[in-house]
């Protein structure tokens, strides 16, 4: 079974369309959508409808902090730009779309895989996995062989051996990585809709469950058009610029 792992879509229609086309060309069997479908970007309704359609067809989807904020209201810890986008986004979604976001689970576990937005140790707290310490805490919190999460907008891979030895790896796009069965793995595919590693190309990952193989992918898309949608919506200019610079 080949699974496309897509996270942090952030209302970016152009990025999601490009990633879905790329994934389809690789004959994926299932999609796992790791949260933050909305926020920041200029086309939340279209993105939510795509996510709803994928879920109806069998995809896994979990709640992200921006999804929760659109449902409940911007959190006080959000910066000014993020809060502005949350408030604007809420007004763009209809009742069915808001209810869909409200009903999203915090995590899903199946086939020895845990899907969650931020981490396994406190999914609703949305703490970031900023390094090996947080990654190991997350891996110790689950029995699943594979944990897939988003929240961090940069691709990363961590592992934990049966003897407690931890490791981390910054992946190269398009290079298959064998995930040895005697280790636990934590996969952060990066952001589809707002990459922050200096490369504006959309991020996602392909996981072959049967082969135990993972590849991180980068997909170029029309980020100028996505930035134009943000400007047309009257959202902060910084949100448009981040798409162009990938930072």
Describe the 3D structure.
- It comes from Roseateles aquae.
- This is Metallophosphoesterase family protein.
- It holds the Pfam family Metallophos_2.
- Residues 1-211 form the Calcineurin-like phosphoesterase domain.
- The protein has 247 residues and is an alpha/beta fold.
- The protein has 8 helices and 12 strands.
- It has one domain (2-245): Purple Acid Phosphatase, chain A, domain 2 (4-Layer Sandwich).
- It has helices at residues 13-25, 44-56, 65-72, 80-92, 95-102, 132-140, 223-232, 237-245; strands at residues 2-6, 30-33, 60-61, 107-110, 113-116, 146-148, 156-161, 166-169, 177-178, 183-188, 202-208, 213-219.
- A 6-stranded mixed beta sheet has the order 3-2-1-11-12-9. Strands 4-5-6-10-7-8 form a 6-stranded mixed beta sheet, with helices on one face.
- The longest helix has 13 residues, at 13-25.
- The model has no long low-confidence stretch (mean pLDDT 94).
Give me a quick take on this structure.
The chain is of the alpha/beta class. It has eight helices and twelve strands. The chain is globular, with a radius of gyration of 17 Å.
